[in-house]
Design goal:
By secondary structure, the chain is of the alpha+beta class. The protein contains four helices and ten strands. The strands form five sheets. A two-stranded antiparallel sheet has the order 1-2. The radius of gyration is 20 Å and the shape is elongated.
């Protein structure tokens, strides 16, 4: 069985040849733990270079306006009457939460105690805070 002769860049997911790394050294990005390996193009020089994914894949969320990697979001057409754009994971969670709360109120006549979305559990206090601060 052949061994893999490359690693994937943490940011852009492009292949980095291990021979290139051996000859030119590694570039690492500390993103919590563990240290992640990135390609030369994505290596962040905080003085004058921005990561390549920012140029290639960055979009603004249709709802909240934050800049995020389009590969981490979804098409917003299901939420904005086919007006285009992308939706970030945070807004997607809020939209799902609102649908869940409305459904829960219809069936049980009370607010839910907790809400689970993609391995994250949101409890009553945070649910109420999100509902209170949401835009119409």
């Amino acid at each position: 069985m052949a061994t893999q002769n490359y690693v994937l860049c943490y940011l852009c997911k492009e292949k980095i040849n291990k021979d290139y790394i051996a000859n030119h050294g590694s570039r690492f990005l500390r993103n919590d733990e563990p240290v992640q390996e990135v390609c030369e193009d994505c290596y962040v020089d905080f003085n004058n270079v921005e990561p390549r994914w920012l140029k290639k894949h960055s979009v603004n969320c249709y709802f909240c306006g934050i800049l995020f990697d389009e590969r981490e979001g979804l098409n917003a057409d299901d939420f904005n009457n086919n007006d285009g754009g992308s939706i970030c994971q945070n807004c997607l969670m809020k939209k799902a939460l609102i649908v869940f709360v409305i459904d829960h109120l219809k069936h049980f006549k009370c607010y839910p105690v907790e809400f689970e979305f993609e391995d994250k559990v949101i409890y009553f206090d945070e649910i109420m805070e999100i509902l209170k601060n949401r835009k119409s």
